[in-house]
């Protein structure tokens, strides 16, 4: 298959654009794509410095440029070079303008501005890192979400992903010989979610973990019978406390997080008539 050059133009960090490109490219297999990333393009002069690179490696242009002058300059260059160009957010923004009855502000990087939402997200990341692996039970009441499950059920990476979405998350490992603090069963504000997985999959993950740590294979940590017992123990606890459960066996971190966000959204809707717990 012929190599395709993909040029990504953004007038900000380009994070949104790269996510769009990743989502689209994930639908294709065996393609040979070379990415050229051009962030912080905010002037015609900057654009002119990039044009020679387009001529050397012509391909598809994907862009998110809210400044009209810069956007039109890029579109004109693409017409001159006969290169296909797609405005990744233009059509959505146009529809929203019609829906809201107002024009978009057209400010580069507006979604990254240091407003209250930005500082809440930073606060959530700090909280989540400080409450990993069962630490800080005295502050669990301040969390939005508590993730619990046996070892290697993706609690930490899921917590960090959710923190980057602005949620304060604490994660609590379930160990049969060492029950979690009683406060976990007394909290009414945070949403407690149980994570589980297929024992066979968990055995393989734990064996790989032991190998990476150069640990001996004689450990019960990865024995199938022991793992099955742990999973049953965790599931009983989830059921006894009526906690929602997510099976992460075939889910990516992003898919697990999406399911949790749906749960926390519904949770907030249920408690909305009352004062939301702090």
Could you characterize what this model shows?
With 278 residues, the protein is of the alpha/beta class. The chain has nine helices and eight strands. The strands form two sheets. It has a four-stranded parallel sheet with strand order 2-1-3-4, sandwiched between helices. Strands 6-5-7-8 form a four-stranded parallel sheet, with helices on both faces. The longest helix has 19 residues, at 253-271. The N and C termini lie far apart (55 Å).
List keywords for this structure.
278 residues, disordered C terminus, four-stranded parallel beta sheet, 9 helices, 8 strands, alpha/beta
How many beta-strand runs? 8
Shape category: elongated
The percentage helix is 40-55%
Percent in strands: 5-15%
Global Rg: 24 Å
Give the count of helical stretches.
9
Extract low-pLDDT stretches.
Answer: 274-278
Largest sheet: 4 strands, parallel
Average pLDDT across residues? 89
What is the succession of H and E elements?
EHEHEHEHHEHEEHHEH
> Structural class per helix/strand content?
alpha/beta
Strand order of the largest sheet: 2-1-3-4
Distance between the amino and carboxyl termini = 55 Å
Brief synopsis:
With 278 residues, this protein is α/β, with parallel strands linked by helices. It has helices at residues 15-25, 44-56, 68-81, 90-100, 116-130, 155-164, 199-212, 224-240, 253-271; strands spanning 4-10, 33-38, 60-64, 85-87, 145-149, 169-173, 191-196, 245-247.
Would you spell out the secondary-structure blueprint of this structure?
Layout: E1 4-10, H1 15-25, E2 33-38, H2 44-56, E3 60-64, H3 68-81, E4 85-87, H4 90-100, H5 116-130, E5 145-149, H6 155-164, E6 169-173, E7 191-196, H7 199-212, H8 224-240, E8 245-247, H9 253-271
Parallel strand pairs: 1-2, 1-3, 3-4, 5-6, 5-7, 7-8
Helix pairs in contact: 2-3, 5-6, 6-9, 7-8
């Amino acid at each position: 298959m012929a190599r395709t050059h993909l040029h990504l133009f953004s007038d900000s960090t380009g994070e949104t654009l790269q996510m769009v490109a990743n989502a689209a490219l994930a639908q294709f297999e065996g393609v040979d794509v070379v990415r050229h990333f051009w962030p912080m393009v905010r002037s015609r002069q900057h654009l002119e410095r990039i044009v020679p690179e387009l001529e050397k490696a012509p391909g598809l242009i994907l862009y998110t440029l809210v400044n009209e002058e810069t956007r039109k300059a890029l579109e004109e260059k693409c017409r001159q070079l006969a290169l296909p160009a797609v405005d990744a957010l233009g059509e959505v923004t146009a529809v929203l303008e019609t829906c809201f009855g107002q024009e978009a502000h057209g400010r580069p990087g507006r979604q990254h501005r240091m407003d209250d939402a930005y500082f809440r997200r930073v606060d959530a990341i700090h909280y989540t890192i400080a409450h990993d692996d069962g630490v800080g039970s005295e502050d669990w009441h301040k969390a939005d979400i508590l993730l619990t499950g046996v070892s290697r059920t993706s609690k930490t990476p899921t917590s960090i992903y959710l923190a980057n979405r602005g949620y304060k998350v604490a994660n609590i490992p379930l160990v049969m010989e060492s029950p979690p603090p009683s406060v976990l069963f007394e909290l009414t504000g945070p949403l407690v979610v149980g994570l589980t997985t297929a024992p066979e999959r968990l055995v393989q993950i734990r064996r790989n973990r032991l190998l990476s740590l150069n640990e001996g294979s004689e450990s019960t940590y990865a024995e199938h019978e022991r793992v099955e017992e742990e999973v049953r123990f965790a599931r009983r606890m989830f059921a006894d406390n009526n906690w929602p459960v997510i099976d992460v066996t075939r889910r990516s971190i992003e898919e697990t997080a999406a399911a949790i966000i749906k749960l926390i959204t519904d949770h907030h809707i249920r408690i909305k008539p009352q004062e939301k717990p702090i």
